[in-house]
Design a protein that fits this description.
heterodimer, A: mainly alpha, B: mainly alpha
């Protein structure tokens, strides 16, 4: 008789798919954060804001 | 406002990766047959192996980038290398954890110091040390050079992990190119299993390319931030 290992199967897929999804979201968050920082730096370079503000 | 629009090819690749993953998942769940001795948990192996191989691909790409970085001295290759290592580590971690979940009902333990498991863990730790090494160095050129040398040397752990099941006595099943007739022949794949396996492999390869491209773009942004910051600091002094 085939053993019931379905709980482990669900857990395995959750780990892999969930892990990939979390990493993709983390990449997106970091990318948006970097984009914001670059815009701030560009504004500082243009002299719109005094340096250090 | 984003500094640079996402290339259309990358958006297409993202959708393709999602589609390929969904197709592979459907094939694994509905098309591939159940393995009688292990039951449902055997289905995890399709994604487990694909994630592991894609992770190793990340380390391989990082090594190629490291060699190019040492040859040309260009920091672009350093960004490319870091992207490969980061994605390789994520996919390899998922492979190790999913393997542990598979092992619990099949081997009756979450973890055993089997040569394949041990070498895979060592490989992951070697690349974790790569990230630590980078974080400890401020000078970008020095960091790139040292990280590249480390990545080339660290890559030794990848073939060691891949071939460990062929070289050492192990309980881990041999999935690719198992020519011997030892007890490792736990998975004799029939054609429908092979279809599910190769579609999972293709899906994770596409996913790897998409993630790698995103991570490379992020690395370039981070490098730009550092350059702009340094320039502003020089102006302010």
């Amino acid at each position: 008789m085939m053993p019931d290992t379905s709980v482990y199967m669900v857990a395995g897929f959750l780990v892999i798919i969930g892990g990939v999804a979390i990493y993709a979201l983390w990449l997106l968050t970091r990318f948006n954060d970097c984009a914001k920082r670059i815009n701030t730096l560009k504004e500082l370079e243009k002299g719109k804001r005094p340096y250090g503000e | 406002m984003k500094p640079e629009k996402t290339p259309r090819a990358l958006i297409f690749l993202d959708f393709l990766a999602l589609l390929a993953l969904a197709t592979a998942f459907a094939l694994v769940i509905f098309y591939a047959p159940f393995e009688l001795t292990m039951g449902s948990v055997q289905k995890v192996f399709y994604f487990h192996v694909a994630a592991g191989l894609a992770g190793m691909l990340g380390f391989f790409v990082a090594t190629i980038a490291a060699v190019a970085c040492l040859k040309t001295g260009s920091l672009k290759w350093d960004v490319a290398g870091l992207a490969g290592v980061e994605i390789g580590m994520v996919l390899m971690a998922l492979c190790i954890v999913s393997g542990s979940i598979w092992a619990r009902p099949v081997w009756n333990t979450w973890w055993t110091w089997d040569p394949r498991l041990t070498t895979a863990l060592i490989m992951e730790l070697i690349y974790a040390a790569y990230l630590l090494l980078r974080s400890g160095l401020d000078d970008a050129r020095r960091r790139a050079k040292l990280a590249a040398v480390y990545a080339v040397v660290g890559f030794i752990s990848v073939p060691l992990t891949f071939f460990s099941i062929r070289v050492f006595r192990t309980i881990h099943p041999v999935m690719i190119g198992s020519a011997d007739s030892s007890a490792n022949e736990l998975f004799a794949m029939n054609p429908s299993m092979q279809t599910a396996f190769f579609s999972s492999l293709a899906a994770f390869s596409i996913l790897f390319i998409a993630l790698y491209w995103h991570r490379y773009r992020l690395g370039n942004l981070q490098a730009e931030i550092n350059e702009r910051r340094a320039a502003l600091q020089e102006e302010g002094e």
